[in-house]
Structures are given as C-alpha cells and as structure tokens.
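Work Package 3 (structural annotation) set out to generate three-dimensional models for the target panel prioritized at the project kickoff. During this period the team completed the workflow that converts sequence records into discrete structure tokens, so that structures can be stored uniformly alongside our sequence database. As a representative example, we reproduce one entry of 133 residues exactly as it appears in the project archive.
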Amino acid sequence: MDVRLEGITVLANDVSALAVFYRDVIGFKAVVEEEHYVEFDNKGVRIAICSRPLMADNTNKHFSFIEDRKGQAFELNFECHSPEAVYELFEQLVAKGATAITEPVSKAWGHTTGFFADPEGNIHSLFAVNPTE
C-alpha cells in the first residue's frame, strides 16, 4: 500500500478568527474561504481549518468533535533557514498576535526552537537546525 499525507485539517471553534491568524500572522494565502472551512495554499501538505460542528455532522456526531477539547491535539513545526531567522520570525509572529510560549533557544538535540500559540491555544514551533562546527 502506498499512502501519502496530503493534508492536515485544524479543528476550530471559531474558523474565522483562526483563519485570520494563519493568513495575517503566519502568512498563508487562503484559496478556499467558507463559513465553516478555510483552506490555504501551502507547498507540500495542504492545511485547512474546519469547524468542529461541521466535522461532527460529517462523522455522525462523533463524540470527539462534540466534547470540549482538553490539551494539545497537534503541533505544526515551521522550519527556518537559520537560527537567526528563528529569532527574527518569532518576534514578528508575536508582534502580529501570536502568543509567545517559550522564546527561541538552542536545544540539546541540535535545533534552535521557539514555541508560540494560535488563537485556539494550539502550540506550534519555529525551528532551525544549528550549524555544525
């Protein structure tokens, strides 16, 4: 069997507010904008936002789309070309409305990484591979 990850759909209580964040703060271009669904242009894996009630309707009212979410369900990782770019982009995202979780730092696993949250509380990372000496 040959399976390829084609897309990621982020579930949202407020599709409009989350779409504004991904468009205006992250910089994704919306290619489909509907009341309960927004899809963005992205090289590689498609990213979309869908309302939790719509997904409940599409899945015969599956409990996971009806109950309140508890805890982190997913993390998007945004790779930068250098550690310096991580610091710069982190500051830009926070200035545009992202919530700073942890400032970028050099980690033991060889990346410079910082964490921020979107308006629904999903925590994501910016990172770059540290240059080897």
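Strands lie at 7-12, 29-33, 37-41, 46-51, 77-79, 99-106, 111-117, 123-129.
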